[in-house]
Amino acid sequence: MRRFGVARRIYYGWWILAASVVAMTVVSGLAAWSLGLYVHPLEDEFGWTRAEVSLGFSAGILVSGLAGPAIGRLVDRFGPRSSVIVGSILAALTFQLLAATSTLWQWYLFSAINAAARQMMFFIPFQALTSRWFDRRRGAALSLLGIGFSLGGFLVLPLLALVIEATDWRGGFVFSGVISAALVLPLAVFVLRDDPTPEETEAFGEGRDAGGASRPVTASVTLGEALRMPIFWVLAIGLMLFFYGMIGWTVHLVPFFESRDISRETAALLVSLASGAGIVSRLALGTVVDRFKRFERAAVGLIGLLALGMGVLLLEGGMPGVLVFLALWVIGTTAGSMIEALTLTRAFGMAHFATILGAIVVIETMGEILSPSISGLIFDTTGSYDWALVMYVLTFSASAAMFAIASRMKYPVLQTSAGSPEASG
Questions:
Q1: Conformation bin of residue 11: beta by default, left when phi > 0, alpha when psi is -120 to 50
Q2: pTM, 2 dp
Q3: What is the C-alpha to C-alpha distance for residues 273 and 190, in angstroms, rounded to an integer?
Q4: CA separation for the pair 221, 348 (Å, rounded)
Q5: Cα–Cα dist 40/32, whole Å
Q6: Does residue 73 contact residue 358 with C-beta atoms inside 8 Å?
Q7: How far apart are CA 243 and CA 231, in angstroms?
Q8: Cβ(410)–Cβ(423) under 8 Å?
Q9: How many CB atoms lie within 10 A of CB 397?
Q10: Which one of 1.20.1250.20, 1.10.530.10, 2.40.10.10, 1.10.10.10 gives the CATH number of domain 12-424?
Q11: Which of 95, 140, 220, 273 makes an SS bond possible with 286, Cβ 3.0 to 4.6 Å?
Q12: Tell me: the pLDDT tens digits for 46-60?
């Protein structure tokens, strides 16, 4: 049977992407979307303050961020598949540690270890994997990968909420470990492959542009070279501010809704519906994203919508304001699944992408570790999230400004065809 005959007309990259979407659904649902579900149960059982509980999330973000360069180097050297296999095993085990938490220091330690394991099977390996398999349609593929993040909130979040309601928060962590081992590990072992063959990319057009011509060869920048370039730091600060707001507010979405007299079940439903709507927005963006030579320009508009959404919540905290906010949040966070890969691969090339992304993650972490705790501290001190909303309006606005600056800077990598608009900006 011929490898590319009638029996095999589908590019294997689509199977890779499908498996990646499933894995992203599981990991994002069990981690990023679900963190708010544990806030009240931990407060009630142990008497911890919201800031103390949130510091556990910050500890996880800190360790996973510091692990970013090592994970990126592992991905570049041994391949994304190995990272996902090891990460899924470690995550399954460390979720059981979280279920055994009985003291505050254990909450911090186990959260940190678990977060590092999850980082090994989250955005770094899957963005690298998708970027390796897709060139001409990379933006569309990354947009589809982001659907996994939305599905995590749409499917896994309400399921996990039911598990916690039926058992307790410990049962939620046990369930999370079982799902990690039962779903992500088999996909990594039996479906994922690190790279396509040249024959595959040639046969299915991933090495060619829309007109059928061979894609120009792009140079690649090492991490050491990137660190000496202004555009690296402009992008890094823009990404740090973006994820400061996105991660910090995602953690506090459910508690915020509860503070506005919305029940936990309704709050989880609102977040779930917003996640489902995010699928539509990502599909829509995926149809046009590859037309942007500079994705930074699209990022300015998307992040600006997030700043506007936080302002709406500040001015109108009732259900009408919540619904307007959710619409803006859905559209604005569409950038989250692709903003790193589309800016970094275009600016610095593919060969060292995961290593450079790992370094960027460290810088992002400087903001992410503070955001959940600061929001929790603001609530503990003032009894509301109003000043947290002001903070996020400012950080999202500053992030949009940084991407506006980056859109005017030249990419370090140069296309072999002189005068390429992507090279010149």
A1: beta
A2: 0.74
A3: 32
A4: 5
A5: 16
A6: yes
A7: 18
A8: yes
A9: 18
A10: 1.20.1250.20
A11: 140
A12: 999 878 888 888 788
